[in-house]
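Input sequence (391 aa), recorded before submission:
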Amino acid sequence: MDIVLDEATLAFRREVQAFLSDELTEELRRGQALTTGLYPPPKVSQPWQRKLAARGWMAPLWPQEFGGAGWTPLQRFIFESECALAGAPLVHPMGVRLLGPVLIRFGTPEQKAHYLPRILRSEDYWCQGYSEPAAGSDLTSLQTSARSDGDSYVVNGSKIWTTHAHYANKMFMLVRTSNIGRPRDGISFLLVDLDAPGITVRPIVSMSGEHELNQVFFDNVRIAKENLVGNENGGWACAQYLLEFERGAGLFSARLRSSLTRLRAVIDEFAEGGVSPLDDPTNAARFAEVAIDLDTFEMLELRSLDGMRQGERSPALPSILKLRASRMKQAVAELGMTLLGRRAARWHSSLECDTNSFADTAVSEYLNSRAYTIFGGSSEVQLGLIARQFV
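Predicted structure, token format:
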């Protein structure tokens, strides 16, 4: 999609390109290129995040008074697009994109003063404690309990599908502090040190062979009440606000376009005898359909960004964005498997292969993409949320 830019915006794009040229190393590019799960490991993401923090570009969604970049929606779109095009590592979103906005809105002055600078400096690595074995997309069913005991809560239960918990030193989590009234009315939002006594992290290895997920167990874990965000039994408001940023503020189109560009490059590279899979009209039509869908999704994200800038909060839009991003991720992965054919059998897990080729990660990309319509609220849940806005 072509956007007409004024001179000031063009100058900003040149500034971003110069920064990427100076600071983005080949090692960091390779780390991102070979990441087929949700996020690169901290050894890839954190060095890049510190470079962004030094430039003041770590938290574009935050108000400037808390360290935000002060960008317009179009500037943020340009930044994300240029980073994707250059192959820069994804910023780990748990602290900066999810927890940060919640603390800015619901946190105490002490919580903001302590945690927000540490998030900007990548001093804490956060994970999210939402899903449970019997409470996935239906978060109101969660049963991990937090019993009040003096100036602490005593927490028992477990969280599952916890991304990067084996790397994290902190978790923000939902717990049940009351069983009175509606299920959502008894939920609270807590911050947890993962080195606290009574916490056990066990790995969950995905079908791609990668360790990205975990189950986290809490056995009489004491958490100081000063780590409560918002009001006791008021955690549902925090959770819903956070999900708006998880589902609707990710700018996935830039990364999807980068994946599609890499796929096209490897198809051209592997053309045999001058014959490309895209010479087949059916394959060419499939590629064009995905590319056109990506153009429309890109426009939808731009509209969402502009609405956020103007203070608009459409209840349905985050779910629409989540639904489209998940389906687009799967469409690109499926297209890669189809067009690469036997070349996709060059399967290497995680960061083990020697090149940055799409073909070397195609199988892992495909397998991991199957989860995109489940995590963060399944597609069925998103469709339900969207439907309620129009009934």
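Checked by second reader. The chain has three domains: 7-91, 126-236, 251-388.
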